[in-house]
Amino acid sequence: MDDSAGTRGYERILLKLSGEMLAGGRGLGIDASVLERVAAELAAAASGGVQVGVVVGGGNIFRGITAGAIDRVQGDHMGMLATVINALAVQDAVKRAGCPSVVMTALDIQRVAEPFEKKAAVAHLDAGAVVIFAAGTGCPFFSTDTAAALRAAEIGAVLLLKGTKVDGVYDKDPVVNADAVRYERISYDRVIRDKLRVMDITATSICMDNDIPIMVFDMSQPGNLARVLNGELVGTRVGDFPDATPST
Question: What CATH number is associated with residue 52?
Answer without folding.
Answer: 3.40.1160.10
